[in-house]
Design brief:
The complex is a heterodimer. Chain A has 2 helices and 4 strands; from the N terminus they run E-H-E-E-H-E. Chain A is α+β, with helices and mostly antiparallel strands. Chain A has a single domain, classed as Alpha-Beta Plaits (2-Layer Sandwich). In chain A, a hairpin with a 5-residue loop joins strand 2 and strand 3. The radius of gyration of chain A is 16 Å and the shape is elongated. In chain A, 19% of the residues are buried. The N and C termini of chain B lie far apart (52 Å). In chain B, the strands form 3 sheets. In chain B, strands 3-2-4-5-7-6-12 form a 7-stranded mixed sheet, sandwiched between helices. Chain B has a 6-stranded mixed sheet with strand order 9-11-10-13-14-15, with helices on both faces. By secondary structure, chain B is α/β, with parallel strands linked by helices. Chain B is globular and about 65 Å long.
Amino acid sequence: MSKTKGWKEIPIGGTIVEPGSSVEFDVTAWRTFRPVFDKRKCTKCGMCWIFCPEGAIKINDDGTYDVDLSFCKGCGICQRACAVKAITMVKEG
Amino acid sequence: MKRVGLSGNYAVAYAAKMADVDVIAAYPITPQTTIVEKLSEFVANGELEAEYINVESEHSALSACVGASLTGARVFTATSSQGLAYMHEVLFMASGLRTPIVMANVNRALSAPLNIWNDHSDAMAERDAGWIQLWTTSAQEAFDATLEAFKIAEEVLLPVMVNLDGFILSHTYEPVILPDESLVKEFVPSKPMVNRVSPKFAYSIGVVGPPEIYYEMKYQVVDAIENSRKKIKEVNKEFCSRFGREYRFVDAYMMEDAEYALVTMGALTGTARAVANGLRKEGERVGVVSIRCFRPFPKEDIVSILEDAKGVGVMDRALTPGGPSNPLFAEIATALYDITRRPLLQSFVAGLGGRDVTADDFKAMFGLVKDVVKEGRPRPCVYVGLRE
C-alpha cells in the first residue's frame, strides 16, 4: 500500500494481496516523540532491537543500532529498554 | 415452467433454491421465518445441496454470510425488522468488503411498541449501508427479483436486499410462474467466484483502513453502486428475454398524460393502481409511480416520469422523526430539485405498523394532491388515518 494509491488502484474490499505490505506504510505522522541514538554510549547489547514491538530498529554496519523513522511510531519502549541511556526521546516538529 | 400457488416467502425460497445457493445462514424472525424454514426443508430432503448454518442471532447470520461470501460461495439469508436492525453494523461490512450476498428483507415495523406487522421502517433505516435495494409488489416479483439479485450482486460485487412487504406479500398466496430449473441455471450459472480468503489470493482481508485509505475504500462502494445501474439494466433486459417479464427501475402506471400522481413502494402499489383506474373512469388524469430499485436511486427516471405532472403525492411508510421530511419524500424532492419546472409535492405517511391503507385512503390522497395544486402550495405532511 503506497502512500498515494487512489481509489482505482486499491484492491477492492481493502484486500491485502502482497505480503509484508505494512512495511511500505509511512507512519511518520503518528509520532509525537522520536528516538535519537547516541552511538558513543551504545554497547551493542541489542535490547532496543529485541523490545521494539514494531521491528523498527535497524543494525548499523558497526553493530550499533538506529531507528527506521518511516516505521517507528514513537512509543519509547526502546528508550526504556536501553540500560546505558543511549536513547533519548526528542519531540517531533 | 409451471404455475403454482405460492406465498411471497415461498416464492423467495424457491428462487434461492433454483439459484443453487451454496451457503444459507439465517435466524428466524416473523414475518420472514417461512423463507428460511422452506430452505431448511430443501436442504434436509436433499433437494438443495447447501451448507445451512444455524446461528444464534442475525448479527451472526450476516457475519457468517460475509465470511462465506469471501470464500467465493453463493450466499443467501433473510431477515425482518429487528433482525435487520441487529445486522446494522455488518451490513456496512458486507458492502465495504464487497461481498455479493443476497438477502430477502420481509418488511416489518421497528419496536417500540413491539409490532410484527408491515411497514418500511426497517429497510429505510438501512438505506445508507451501501446495499442495492430492490422492492417488489407481488409474489412473482419477489421470485424474479431474488433471481436477478444473485446475478446483479455477483456482477458488481455488492450485496443486494430484496424487499417484500410482511404478511401482505410474505404470507399471501398468489399464482407464481416457476421457470424450469435448467433455464434458471442458464440465467444464474454457478460460476466459481474468487476465493478471497485463500492464501493463493490474499494475505489479509478485513483490515484497518486508516484515514489515508478509508475514504478511497468507501468511494469504491459509491463507484460500484453508481456503475451497478448499467448492470441492473442489462440484467433486467436479459431476464425479460429469457422469462418474458420486463422490469424497470421505476414502474410508471398511466403516467403518460397524468396530471396527478402518487409515488409508492411495495405491495400497496396494487391498491393505488386500482384506485387510479377508478379515478380515470371519472375523468381524472391520475397515475401511480412505484419504485422498484431504491438503491441505486433512479433519479433520472423519476425526473422524466414526474416532470410534467402538476402535483405528486409521496407515500412514505416510514418516519424520519424531526427531519425535514420522511425518507421517500426526501429522495423524490432531491431528485426533482435541479429541474426548473417541477411538480408540487405533497408528503403523506400511511400504513405504519401494519395499519390498513384502504382504497378510500388512496382516493383521499389523490384528492388532496389535486386540492393542494389548486391552492398553489403543499400542506404539511398528512398522516393518513391517524387518530387525534
